Structure formats: structure tokens, C-alpha cells
Amino acid sequence: AHKPVRQVAVFGAGYIGLVTGACLAELGHRVVVRDIDPAKVALLRSGDVPIYEPGLGDLIARNKERLTFTTDLDETLHGAELAYVCVDTPPSSSGDADLSRVWSVVRSLEGAAHLRAVAMKSTVPVGTGTRVRAALDAGGLAHVGYAANPEFTAEGTAVHDFLHPDRIVIGASDEATAALISELHEGVDGPVVVMDVRSAEMVKLASNALLATKISFINEIATLCEKTGADVEEVARAVGLDHRLGPHFLRPGVGWGGSCFPKDSEALRQLASNTGYHLQLLSAVIEVNNLQKRRAVQKLKDELGTLTGMRVALLGLTFKPGTDDMREATSTVLASRLLAEGAEVRCWDPMARPAEVEPWVSTTRHATPELALEGADAAILVTEWPQLKDVDWAGAAAVMRRPVLFDGRNLLDPAGMRALGYTYMGVGRP
Ligand code: UGA
């Protein structure tokens, strides 16, 4: 059957906008991505990608006939049948998501003559769709449909996640809009789930909250394993074999971070409290996550006696491997706590952008893990970059002032490290 090609305007050339735009172009649609940042647009036009995401650069290059970047509104809206809102919704001082960028996009749609639907990819509070609907009606766009179409892609695997999702969630108030968004995804390998707008908005927040809950849960079990002599790795492996529970998101560590879990869990908690309900479980999940970071620093303190004057190496800085993203990374919390305790912080990371690391460790970032470990009194493995498996750990033990290592991701083999002379501490394992 002949597949209709749509003209799509994507607002926002951030993480979600770029992945959405490139993947829709890959599906054969004509896409214009608009961003208000001229430097970012210039970079994209020159063939560069402002973020590190595996496969994204290739996808953009391969689809450059169908995928353009601009700051210009008229160019973006010219012929556009669909508008995708992909701007960021950072937390505001009240704890509610700041939707100002969303509103400025919605306002800018007023002159779009061919527009048939507006789709929301930005993560927004439940009820936002109703407000956007009212704004569209007031702006002379009452005939334009609206859909909440949340994204579930994870950084590092975003392109694959978009093209092979577990589900495509479409929350629309009318059938025609649901059909249009569904048809736009033709070629994507995953089931389409259609529902009302508010439910679709809730799916996004509930999914991230449940994923964060699984991690905080296993982190608490890990703490208990430390106190009882059990091994959380064995526990998680066997628990995960129960198909009702599943093996995913049961890796203990130094707590979850990133641009989504911290922001979305706070947003959901705030959303609940705005309705007068206090989310008990989610509040505990957030508190356990904060505690997990404090415990990491405490472990070193207990081992070294004091942190004052100690040189501590942080291995891995990004919130997870496979990304250059430092947003809400656990490393930033650990670094500031260590500095506050009077320690000297050194670090290594293969991808973190220097500008984001600079505020705290500009002068002590090293090109290799081995260099960061030189003369250190202790090290924390913060991000499980695979390179850290190949470190010359025997050589490092010889040049560290004290071979104390807290493996915050259980990446290394405890017995092997102890055989090399390390005081090795993992998360929840003997
Ligand atoms: C997350 C979700 O996984 C995506 O489904 C969602 O679309 C996305 O947020 C979003 O809302 O945009 P992401 O933040 O890219 O994706 O990263 P994850 O791979 O989920 O990891 C989040 C954090 O949890 C990281 O700090 C990671 O180290 C930590 N984590 C993850 C664990 O500590 N243990 C685990 O078992 C899994």
C-alpha cells in the first residue's frame, strides 16, 4: 500500500526533537526542525550533531534530503500538517514543570494554514492537553487535532528505541487525530496504544516513576544485603527471573540520575500534591535515592577515617555510560560533597563535556583512569564505562597512595581486585 508522506514541523532541536525529527525523516516524512538557538541550528546545518547519541549523526546524514534545520518560523510552518512539540519542560521554583517554552510554541502555530494536528512529545503534567486545546481554540485553530504522544526512548539507545518501541502511546480526543499520528508511525516496529489525552500524559510519568522505584528498591535491598551478608547480585538475578518482575532496572548502584527520572519523579510528586494527595511510595523512592548518594561518600569516610585532605578519584562522570549527558549525574553530587568535606577531587570521563565538568574539577580532569588514580587515597567508580574493566588495576594499585576502591556499579570482580591488594567495596555484595 502507498504510505502517505507528511510534512512535519518539529519544535526544539534538543534531545527529543532531534531523535524524533531524524526518525520521522527515516520513515519517509519531510521534516523541518526548528530551534531558537542560531548556533545550534548552524551546527546542525553544517552536518554536526550537538549531542552524543549513537546512530543519530548517521541517521541525520542519511536523511538530509528530507530533514532541514532552521530558526525561521515561516519556513517551519510552511505546508506543515503536523507540529511536534519537543521543547524542554524544566522544573520551576515551585516544583511544577515550567511550560513557558511549550506555550511559546503553541502561540507560534497561529498562522499555520495546513496544520491538522499538534502532538506533544515534551513531558508535561497531566491536564496540559486540556490547556493546549483551549489555547488552540482561542488562537483560531479549533479545527486542529491534539495528541499526547509521549516518548519512552532512553539515552544511548534512543534511535533504536524510537524505531523499535515496546509501545507507541497516542492520547487523542478524536479518532481522526489518533489515526493521523498512528499512520505517521507506519514502519515503526511496535504496537500502537490509543487512549484519552490525560491517560497518555499519565503513562509517561507513571512509567518513569515505576522504573525509578525498581532501582531504589534494589538499592535498599543492597543496603540490607551489606548488613546481612547476602549478595545483591545473586538476589537480583534470581528475583529478575520471575517473569512477573523481570530482570530490568534491578542493577544496584550509586543512585539514579539523568535528565528524566529526577525531574519526572519530582513533577509527579508535585502533580499529586497539587491535587491534595501525597504520593507516599514515590516520596520514599526519591528519599532512598538521595540516601544512596550520601552512603557512597560515607563509605569512603568510614574507610579513610576522614576525607579532609584526601585525594579522591571519580571514575566516570556522566549519569550513565554511552552518553555525554551530565544532567543530575550522581558524580556532581558526590563531587560537591567530597569538596565540602575537604577532599581533593580528581576525575576521568571519556565523554562528559568539559564545560559541564568545569565548575568543580576543571584543573583535575585526566585523560586516562590511570592518571586520575595516581596519588589518590581512594577512588569511586561512578559510571560503568566499559573502558574501566580494562584499566591496568595492578599498575594503578602501585601508584595510588592507598588502593581503596568503592565500585559504585559492581562492575569489577571483588576477589580479583582484592588479590591485587585493593580494599574493595561494592554495592550490596560481600
Ligand atoms: C529514562 C527511561 O529509561 C526512558 O524510558 C525514558 O523515556 C527516559 O528516561 C525519558 O523520560 O526521557 P534515561 O534517563 O535515558 O531514560 O536513562 P536510563 O537508562 O533509564 O537510566 C536512568 C538512571 O538510572 C541512570 O542514572 C542509571 O545509571 C540508573 N539505573 C538504571 C540504575 O541505577 N540501575 C538500573 O538497573 C537501571
TrEMBL record:
Pathway it works in: Nucleotide-sugar biosynthesis; UDP-alpha-D-glucuronate biosynthesis; UDP-alpha-D-glucuronate from UDP-alpha-D-glucose: step 1/1
Pfam families: UDPG_MGDP_dh, UDPG_MGDP_dh_C, UDPG_MGDP_dh_N
EC number: 1.1.1.22
Superkingdom: Bacteria
Residue span, UDP-glucose/GDP-mannose dehydrogenase C-terminal domain: 313-414
Key words of the record: NAD, Oxidoreductase
Enzymatic class: oxidoreductase
Matches recorded under InterPro entries: 6-PGluconate_DH-like_C_sf, NAD(P)-bd_dom_sf, UDP-Glc/GDP-Man, UDP-Glc/GDP-Man_DH_C, UDP-Glc/GDP-Man_DH_C_sf, UDP-Glc/GDP-Man_DH_dimer, UDP-Glc/GDP-Man_DH_N, UDPglc_DH_bac
Catalysed reactions listed for this entry: UDP-alpha-D-glucose + 2 NAD(+) + H2O = UDP-alpha-D-glucuronate + 2 NADH + 3 H(+)
Family under the similarity heading: Belongs to the UDP-glucose/GDP-mannose dehydrogenase family.
PANTHER family: UDP-GLUCOSE 6-DEHYDROGENASE TUAD
The protein's name: UDP-glucose 6-dehydrogenase
Source species: Nonomuraea antimicrobica
